[in-house]
Design a protein that fits this description.
seven-stranded antiparallel sheet; alpha+beta; Rossmann fold
Amino acid sequence: MSVLLFFHNGGSGNAEAGKTIIDGSYLAAISNTIVVTANYRVGVFGFLSVGSSEASGNAGLLDQLAALKWVQQNIGSFGGDPSRVSVGADRGGADIASIHLLTEAINMGLFRSVLLMGGSAFSPASIITKRRAQAQAAVLADDVGCPSSTSEEIVACLRQLPARVLNDAQTKLLAISGPFQYWGPVVDEVYLQEPLAKALQRPRLQKVDLLIGSAQQDGLISRAKAIKFLHEISSSPSVLISTAPHDSTKDLFYLMDDSQIRSDPNSSIPYQQYWVFRQKYSVEEAKLWCLTRCAQEDEFCQMADLQNTADTYFTCTLYPEAQICDSNTEQILENCRTELPWQPQALYRKIVTLRSTVKSFYTRVPFRKAEGISVRNVTDMSRKAVSDGFFECERWCDADPCCTGFGFLNVTQLSGGKIMCLTLNSLGIQTCAEESRSAWQISNCSLPGTEVRIHPFGWYQKPADLMNTVPNLCPTVSLPFRPESEYLDTWQPLNVSSVLVDSTISNFEAVHVSREISNGFATAKDYCLSACSRNQTCAVVTLEIRASAIRCLFYPDTQICSHGLEGHSCQLLLKEPATYIYRKQDLVLPISESDLAPSVYIPSHGDLIGKPQAVRIGTEWKNISQFLGIPYAAPPLAERRFNPPEPFAWEKTWNATVAR
């Protein structure tokens, strides 16, 4: 089989460029190709160069080379042909990957064709000079408080810092330096031995097919935004301040009480930072600039903080809504706090103005119980008519781009009791379906708080077309509890060919796990498998990804068997189709070898255990095998940070069912 090795957009300046998993399942299913996606180091982690062996640069480039060699050595174990390897890459990834065409890698037989999308080795954002690389390293070290007199001191100190500190510092450095600054490969005279223009003139022994594509004005949108920002921070105060009158801007905000704010260095809330230079702005003018910027960032910014700490500039930090409340609905009003990565000096919050109408209808969630909810805001509606309170609750959720739904609850369950509106980051895990007619279930739905409530009390989902689409705008949501991990090894994934759908089945239970939860599918899978494991009669779990939730169905043993002259076969009956199907391993269910979890033996290492995957192509399904999180090199942590990749020795068995 042919092989495609794909390198993501590195951007050379964003340490999270490869954080999102690039899923090659669909391409593999439709093309009969083995698709390999490889992560590699970017930004300062992949291209720090101090001009010595301590960090000579090009670690990210060498990561790609190590991945290419791994594919050559091991792809045959997966049924791939090492002589039919193509390299694909886009944007910053293409800038870097195409450099291999001009190095000795072209003569190693590592690939026979290259597909470059929106990038090449001769892009302005490709190679940088040694002098500039070393100057950037010194400035970065100084900014994070590391000594910068020798290259050894710089590297030793930078290796000890948390990755997030370096990522924030490099983002700040590149923003201040201007839109055309970046981290990139250097001519290190080791792997990249000469300037690319000179390398291009040398005859190459090996020829490969090359396909290059680009779009008109490719890359100019992001560059234009950066140029616009650079212009703004260097413009005169009068130009910027005139965009919003002094009084009207201040009227949009109020100063928050410090007692409502909590700092947590591990907070993952996104933020934007601007540096407002003292030579241009007084304290009051800088504050006004910061508030004006927040007002202009309508979707993102809800709070603004101006830090007066540096000698040359003020730091203006913009935050989205970051209020988190206790999920205990009895005491939730007293447990709402705004959580930020660090303590602000003076935090201003936008005053929320509710619309007079609701943008769209909210859908009632057909479940009586929601656990693990994440609350953004709480409003007491006890003094309003029920209909007025419900209408206002919808408008509060409309006004918050990170609100995914709300709970409109009679907390005491009594007539005239406390009525509260809870706008939510996440609806958590929803159980105890309101209209379930099944006599079989595994959830305890008889506890207080799961009674059927009189309309309109209950949980409501925001319409899909109103959900936030801005990446990294909303804070990460995690469950307050962890599923029991000891249960997770007792399950076996099944192929869709081993099941039949029978819509008349009545013994099943449905649960929804909100997709806003961090690692949504993995969390849903762990929760559902561990919940079923604790019930002796629960035998099968299915999962299906929907727009707002992962739908999980529990079943008792529903297998049916047919007997004939050639033997017998058994299949599971399901209420509805599902992409992911799991059964307890201790069940006696004859199935074919193709329904079992796939495994591959890697010489000198051991067995990789993958998972079957069903991919929908039009109206049909096709089965493929997935192997995730396979290490091609040792993790570049601690003393390995900034070093070339090193071999990683694993033996016996490697769990390749989860990404790492």
